[in-house]
Amino acid sequence: MKASISDAIIMRTKEFGETDLLVTFFTPEQGQLKAVAKGGRKSRKRFANSLDVFSLVVLEYESRKEGTLPLLQSGKLVHAFPGIRSDYTRLSLASYMVELTEALFPLGVADKRAFDLLKNSLYALDRGHGEQEIIVPFEAGALALGGYRINLERCCLCGRRYMGQGTAVFVRERGGIACMRCRRPSVDMPSLSPEALKVLDSLQSVSHELGEDLGPSKGVLSEIRPVLRLHRDYRIERPLKTAKHVD
Ligand SMILES: [Zn+2]
C-alpha cells in the first residue's frame, strides 16, 4: 500500500455501490485519477465538502493491489469557488473546461501546466471575469499543451514564413495557417489579423497569468474564437457534451 497526497480538482463523482462514491479528479503530477470514497455517499464528515465537482482540494489516497481502485483517505477543501456555483453560465463554462481537460489529458497523461491552467481559469471564472477572456485563453492553452498547437510560423501550403504582417487564413486540416496567396477566407477557413495571430501565439505558450491584461481587444478574441472551435472539433474525435455552452 502506498499513500499519496496531492492537490486536486474534482472532475466528477458517481454513486458506487450502496454507500460509496467513485471520484474522478485531476492532479498536477499524475493527471486524471479515479478513487473510491468509502462511505462517501453517507458520511460527508471525513471528506468535509471536499468532493464537490470543481472544488480545489488536497486529497490523500492510497493505492491498493493492482487492478483495484485507490481508496480516498481524506480530503481538505482549499477553494469551493462559490462564485461559480451561484451562476448557471459560469457553472456551464466550468463544466466545459473540465470536459475539455478530460478529453485532452486522459488517464495516465499528466501535465502540471494543464493543472495550473484549469485551476487559474476556475479562479478567474469565480472572480467573474468575462466569458471570452477566460474561454479563449483556456482553449488555446489547453489545446497547445495537449499536443494540438496551431502552427503559426509559416504558410502550411507554400511554406512561406509568416513575418508578422498581413492577414492569414486558418486551415483546419493542417492545424496551421495559410497565406492569402494560397487561400482565401471562408466560413470554414476564418481569417486572422496580424494582431490576432500575435495574441494566439502568446496564448498557446501559456506564459501569461490568467486574468492579467493581455491587451487583446474583444474584437481580437472574437477573431480567435471560431478558429479554436474549428480546431478543437477537428482534433478531438469525440464530440464534447458541454461544447454547446460555449459555441
Ligand atoms: Zn502560402
Describe what this molecule looks like in 3D.
The chain is an alpha+beta fold. It folds into two domains: 2-80, Nucleic acid-binding proteins (OB fold (Dihydrolipoamide Acetyltransferase, E2P)), CATH 2.40.50; 85-149 and 185-245, Up-down Bundle (de novo design (two linked rop proteins)). It contains six helices and nine strands, in the order E-E-E-E-E-H-H-H-H-E-E-E-E-H-H. The chain has helices at residues 82-85, 88-104, 112-126, 131-145, 194-204, 218-235, and strands at 2-16, 20-27, 31-37, 56-63, 71-79, 151-155, 168-171, 176-179, 191-192. The strands form two sheets. A five-stranded antiparallel sheet has the order 3-2-1-4-5. A four-stranded mixed sheet has the order 6-8-7-9. The model has no long low-confidence stretch (mean pLDDT 92). Zinc ion is lined by residues 155, 157-158, 160, 178-179, 181-182.
Question: Would you spell out the secondary-structure blueprint of this structure?
Answer:
Elements: E1 2-16, E2 20-27, E3 31-37, E4 56-63, E5 71-79, H1 82-85, H2 88-104, H3 112-126, H4 131-145, E6 151-155, E7 168-171, E8 176-179, E9 191-192, H5 194-204, H6 218-235
Parallel strand pairs: 6-8
Antiparallel strand pairs: 1-2, 1-4, 2-3, 4-5, 7-8, 7-9
What are the defining features of this structure?
OB fold (Dihydrolipoamide Acetyltransferase, E2P); alpha+beta; de novo design (two linked rop proteins); 32% helix; 247 residues; 6 helices; 25% strand; 2 domains
